[in-house]
Specification:
0% of the residues lie in helices and 56% in strands. The protein contains no helices and 7 strands. The strands form 2 sheets. It has a 5-stranded mixed sheet with strand order 1-7-6-3-4, with no helix packed on it. A hairpin with a 2-residue loop joins strand 6 and strand 7. The protein starts with a strand and ends with a strand. The model has no long low-confidence stretch (mean pLDDT 86).
Length: 71
Amino acid sequence: PNPTRNVIYVKGIISSTCNYRIYNINGKELQSGALSDQKIDLGNLRGGLYFLTLSVDGKTIQKAFKVVNTF
């Protein structure tokens, strides 16, 4: 998984309709919405492993990522 702190940048999405969902390792949905400016704010997530699901033009893409907190 790719580590991140506060924001995920999504490259290569050309469609104007892209929705996302973020799940924890137990499968609980923690955040969802429409992709804006090809970035997703993760400021409310604690450090840990998460899964990002993108829905674009009827296709679904899923990736794992790790949030690293530096408090």
